[in-house]
Amino acid sequence: MSDLIKVTEKNGIPVVSSRYISDTFSKQHKDVLEAIRSIECSEEFSQRNFAPSNFSVRGRRYPEFLITKDGFTFLAMGFKGKKAAKFKEDYINAFNQMESFIRNLLEAKMDFPEFTDAIMSTHEEPKHYHFSNELNMINAIVTGMNAKQFKESKGLDKEVHSIRPYLEPHQLEAVKALQRIDIGLIITIPDFQQRKRILESQYIRLKSRLLSA
Hints:
The protein is of the alpha+beta class. Helices cover 64% and strands 12% of the residues. It folds into two domains: 7-99, no CATH class; 112-212, no CATH class. The chain is built from ten helices and four strands, in the order E-E-H-H-H-E-E-H-H-H-H-H-H-H. The protein starts with 6 loop residues before the first strand and ends with a helix.
């Protein structure tokens, strides 16, 4: 994600500041604020997608808006030209990446919070794929397929976020056990393939014990 595309997260929702929109599209921030305040949409849509906020510069506070993906799309409709079109694409891609990051973070936190903390602590700027790669690796070791393939094999909807409720009891226990082991590996062994080999070896030992339990 480009450093210019400053999509962040607030209360589990991807947002972008009106300041970054003004910088990216070479507009005065006061003009962007005015465009938001006078935007022709319903009050409900405005309240849901344009949250008033403030930022500080040298001790003084100034107004800004925190804008959702839908709000940005609505606002950016009026930005014309090839350069504006490119920036709109970049922002929408950035929103999508942040949505994926939040989804993977929440899923990982729900399944195993210590596992999430380990990933967060080893990356200066964690990305959504840091979670999905690690989770998919463990899923593949235990089930023989990644999450997408597992959903297809079980006829699950694509919108199902976690495959954990659909695992066999011994598979679920194995996933949890490998996640516990992976907590230490993530911190001590940066190489993904090396971690994978260790976890595969651990699963061979775990599998026979769990199946006989």
